[in-house]
Amino acid sequence: DHGSYSTSPDNINGVAARLPGYPLILALVYLICGKNIVVSFYVVIVLQILADVLSAYFLYRISLKYLNSKRIALLSMLLYSIYPFIIVWVPVVATETFSVFFMLWGLLILGAAPKIRNCLIGGALLAVSVFMRPQISVLIVIFILVYLITHRKVLKKAMVSVFLMALCFGMVYSPWVVRNFFMANKIIIFYNISET
User: Which pTM value belongs to this model?
Assistant: First the structure.
């Protein structure tokens, strides 16, 4: 391979090289910490630890709702908590912890659908999770299928809930796609790192 690769916003191929979710969190923490990079680093790690603890709880609640077993829900939470990937990545400044946190939070709220508010908030939280890790979009499709299957007796209501979730997801996520179109003159749904 040859050529140059860029994530610089000054380079036309770099304007959409990174999804905005995690950098926005980092920037917010950096500003709150008085632009002190060392303090910001430790604050982000503490926030990621808190997000991870909440993620374990969210997984417990989701498992309890869909599997109807406190024992299995506790086991799910325990397995998540001792999973080596989680243990290794939580204290690292990386997107994984917050993307999982927002995904599980969104799924927990969506599980309480068909309330319109839950569908909209859940869709927005799922969009935020995709702003950090686009691979989560595959899990969202799987969740929608599980949701429709588990609500097949009230399929019409379930489809309305899915539509409202998708609508809010699109409202939150679409400005990124529109921005990329105007900045790069092409449709970039997630991110673009290409040869110049």
Answer: 0.85
